[in-house]
């Protein structure tokens, strides 16, 4: 069986403004091509037949990674391989550097981008989960306006985001002032590089008595979009982590999530994994927090 | 650049050190371009949706899936395929090691793995077994002969620290 994409108009703009103009003119039929590691497979399988492809790979300035006034600013076209190797990312948002190697394989991370993964919005994908737990903002542009959306409001449902057909994600901003020192990203997949069945990301700060002062725990693969656990925050803030408390967090998360079942895992199995991986993420982030944010 | 459906454009690129000037329509996959337009059938086409790794090539030195790129995107690029690994008909040390360690059975997955391994050794001349396996996770071998492949790459990594895919 051969697997080839349907025909499409191909545009390669020279500037972001031109890309936005083309997107606007294409109305609902335009699609931005970045790394192509999710879009091209679905085009090859004819699950998507966009009439107009706007290739942004040649655009200058869309792949810069910089730190400015308390914000990590990561251009939407930054390659995933770059996220795992970039020193600024490792220093300011080590959670992302830890999550990146779980995305596909080196051969796909060489092309795949941070922005492409965020807008594709797979429910178990590493980038959306990491950016949710980091309380990141998505900078979105159209011909007429630029707006900033918190990642916590960005996901609508499976593979669907707040982004409109005439809009393009240009940058991701992560506030790093007061970012918790303890971090962890863990996941379970059937084989290395497969889609995660469940993944979990956690950020924790502690005081000098090793009591948790702030915590954010998020899970992927357990709902249509990545979710923040409110119960974990309620249980953990103000407490020292004990094995009894950790078990309680695991049970609370299992009760909190409502996963769907598919060919890869039953509802019960995903729920079980959610508890196990929530505990692993909390434990690792806590260990790092009490060690002063070291690499643990 | 603006191309309508089925409208041909001329692209110019370097494959294995040789310059190609060819005409393509936007939907032509790079994997098909290499096989059909350049006649380089060493690049194998397996799943055509980025999973199996058989079509992996080096694009400006990076190992990527050629079935997930359109030929029109690589205008001006430098590409290396399995045909560009030898030197005047002599296998390079990595290819020799593959032969020596029985790292290929049916050979379908081999070209892609050779290119990924070349990239790995270029940036990391002494990879650990774990790093080799991590790279290899991006390739499916349905004969399941992974052990020989790991051994072959380990041999090159230890024997010739300055190994590079440049011939």
TrEMBL record, chain A:
It holds the Pfam family CO_deh_flav_C. The keyword Cell division does not apply. GO terms for molecular function: FAD binding; oxidoreductase activity. Keywords: FAD, Flavoprotein, Oxidoreductase. InterPro entries: CO_DH_flav_C (IPR005107), CO_DH_flav_C_dom_sf (IPR036683), Diverse_Substr_Oxidored (IPR051312), FAD-bd_PCMH (IPR016166), FAD-bd_PCMH-like_sf (IPR036318), FAD-bd_PCMH_sub1 (IPR016167), FAD-bd_PCMH_sub2 (IPR016169), Mopterin_DH_FAD-bd (IPR002346). Residues 3-179 form the FAD-binding PCMH-type domain. This is Carbon-monoxide dehydrogenase medium subunit/2-furoyl-CoA dehydrogenase FAD binding subunit. The lineage of its organism: Bacteria, Bacillati, Bacillota, Bacilli, Bacillales.
From TrEMBL, chain B:
PROSITE patterns: 2FE2S_FER_1, 2FE2S_FER_2. InterPro entries: 2Fe-2S-bd, 2Fe-2S-bd_dom_sf, 2Fe-2S_ferredoxin-like_sf, 2Fe-2S_ferredoxin-type, 2Fe2S_fd_BS, Beta-grasp_dom_sf, Diverse_Oxidoreductases. One of its GO terms (molecular function) is 2 iron, 2 sulfur cluster binding. CDD domains: fer2. Signal peptide: none annotated. Residues 9-85 form the 2Fe-2S ferredoxin-type domain. Keywords: 2Fe-2S, Iron, Iron-sulfur, Metal-binding, Oxidoreductase. Pathway: Alkaloid degradation; nicotine degradation. This is Carbon-monoxide dehydrogenase small subunit/2-furoyl-CoA dehydrogenase 2Fe-2S iron sulfur subunit. The lineage of its organism: Bacteria, Bacillati, Bacillota, Bacilli, Bacillales.
């Amino acid at each position: 069986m051969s697997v080839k994409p349907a025909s499409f108009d191909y545009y390669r703009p020279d500037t972001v403004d031109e890309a936005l103009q083309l997107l606007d003119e294409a109305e609902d039929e335009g699609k931005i091509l970045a790394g192509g590691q999710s879009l091209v497979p679905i085009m090859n399988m004819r699950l998507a037949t966009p009439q107009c492809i706007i290739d942004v790979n040649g655009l200058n300035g869309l792949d810069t990674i910089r730190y400015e006034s308390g914000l990590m600013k990561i251009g939407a076209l930054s390659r995933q391989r770059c996220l795992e190797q970039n020193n600024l990312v490792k220093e300011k948002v080590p959670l992302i550097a830890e999550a990146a190697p779980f995305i596909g394989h080196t051969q796909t991370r060489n092309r795949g981008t941070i922005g492409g993964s965020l807008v594709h919005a797979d429910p178990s994908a590493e980038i959306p989960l990491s950016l949710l737990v980091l309380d990141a903002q998505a900078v979105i542009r159209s011909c007429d306006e630029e707006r900033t959306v918190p990642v916590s409001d960005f996901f609508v449902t499976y593979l669907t985001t707040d982004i409109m057909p005439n809009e393009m994600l240009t940058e991701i901003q992560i506030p790093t002032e007061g970012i918790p020192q303890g971090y962890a990203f863990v996941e379970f997949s059937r084989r290395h590089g497969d889609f995660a069945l469940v993944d979990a990301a956690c950020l924790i700060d502690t005081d000098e008595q090793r009591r948790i002062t702030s915590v954010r725990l998020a899970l992927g693969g357990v709902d249509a979009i990545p979710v923040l656990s409110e119960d974990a925050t309620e249980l953990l803030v103000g407490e020292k982590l004990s094995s009894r408390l950790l078990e309680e967090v695991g049970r609370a998360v299992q009760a909190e999530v409502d996963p769907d079942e598919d060919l890869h895992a039953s509802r019960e199995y995903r729920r079980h994994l959610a508890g196990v991986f929530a505990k692993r993420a909390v434990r690792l982030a806590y260990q790092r927090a009490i060690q002063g944010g070291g690499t643990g | 650049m603006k191309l309508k459906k089925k409208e041909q454009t001329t692209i110019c690129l370097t494959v294995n050190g040789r310059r190609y000037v060819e005409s393509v329509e936007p939907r032509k996959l790079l994997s098909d371009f290499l096989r059909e337009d350049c006649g380089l059938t060493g690049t194998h086409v397996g799943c055509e949706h980025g999973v199996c790794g058989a079509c992996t090539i080096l694009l400006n030195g990076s190992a990527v899936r050629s079935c997930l790129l359109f030929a029109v995107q690589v205008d001006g690029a430098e590409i290396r395929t399995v045909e560009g690994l030898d030197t005047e008909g002599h296998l390079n040390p990595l290819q020799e090691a593959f032969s020596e360690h029985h790292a290929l059975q049916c050979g379908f997955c081999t070209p892609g793995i050779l290119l990924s391994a070349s990239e790995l050794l270029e940036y990391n001349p002494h990879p650990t077994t774990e790093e080799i396996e991590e790279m290899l996770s991006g390739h499916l071998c349905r004969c399941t002969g992974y052990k020989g492949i790991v051994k072959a790459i380990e041999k090159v990594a230890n024997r010739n620290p300055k190994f590079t895919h440049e011939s």
